[in-house]
Amino acid sequence: MKLSHCFAALPLLSLAHALHFYFESNEKRCFLEELPSDTIVEGHYRALVWNEPTKAWLSNSDMGITVNVVEMASGHTVVNTKGPSDGRFTFTSHDPGDHNICLSTNITGGWISTEHIKMYLDIQVGSAKHDTTADTTHVSTLAGKLRELNNKVADIQREQKYMREVEATFRDASERTNSRAVVWSLVQMAVLVAAAWGQMRYLKMYFGEKKLR
C-alpha cells in the first residue's frame, strides 16, 4: 500500500496521512512512503486489541509496537525501535526515494488463534512544527509567519532537488539506451556490408570461372 502515489506532483511538502487498519498479532504491516532527502517524518500510532467478552476494541498495556523504517534504495535502516501500544516515532530521510515503514506487535495468541489488532497511524511529512511553548523570546505574529514561510520555501527547494535527481536518473538511463541502440545499429550495418561484399565476391568469382570455361 503506498501512502503517496502522486507525492512528487504536490506543491508543498508538509502533508499528513491518517488511517487505520486491521491485522493479526503474528503479522507485520508495511507501507511505502516516497520522500525527498533531508525530510523530517513524524509518526503517531495507537494499537487496540479485540476483546471477545466485551465485544470491543481495548488498549493493552502489555502490548508493545516495533517500528522499522528502511530506505529502499540503499537498504539503510533509519528507525528500529520498540515502544508502547500508543507512541510516536521520528526520523529524517537521508536518501531520496521510497521508505518502507513496518509495524508489528510483541504479543501472540494461543496455539490455535491469534489476537486481532486495530492500528491507528498518523504520519506527518515535512519540517517539524515550531514549538511555541519553548520559545522564550515571544516573537511577533509577523516574524512567526516569516519563519513558517521560510520553512515552506526550504521544503519546496528540497522537493525541487528531488525532482532534479529523478530527472537526472531518467536522463542517464535514456542516454545509455540510446548509446546501445546506436552501437547495435552500427553492428547491423557492418554485418550487412560484410555479407553484401561476400556475396559480390562470390558472384564475381563464379561468373569469372564460367567465362574461362
From TrEMBL:
Residues 1-18 form the signal peptide. GO terms for cellular component: membrane. Residues 139-166 form a coiled coil. Residues 28-125 form the GOLD domain. InterPro entries: Emp24-like (IPR015720), GOLD_dom (IPR009038). The chain crosses the membrane at residues 181-203. Keywords: Coiled coil, Membrane, Signal, Transmembrane, Transmembrane helix. It is a single-pass type I membrane protein. It is found in: Membrane. The keyword Membrane applies. Belongs to the EMP24/GP25L family. This is ER to Golgi transport-related protein. The lineage of its organism: Eukaryota, Fungi, Dikarya, Basidiomycota, Agaricomycotina.
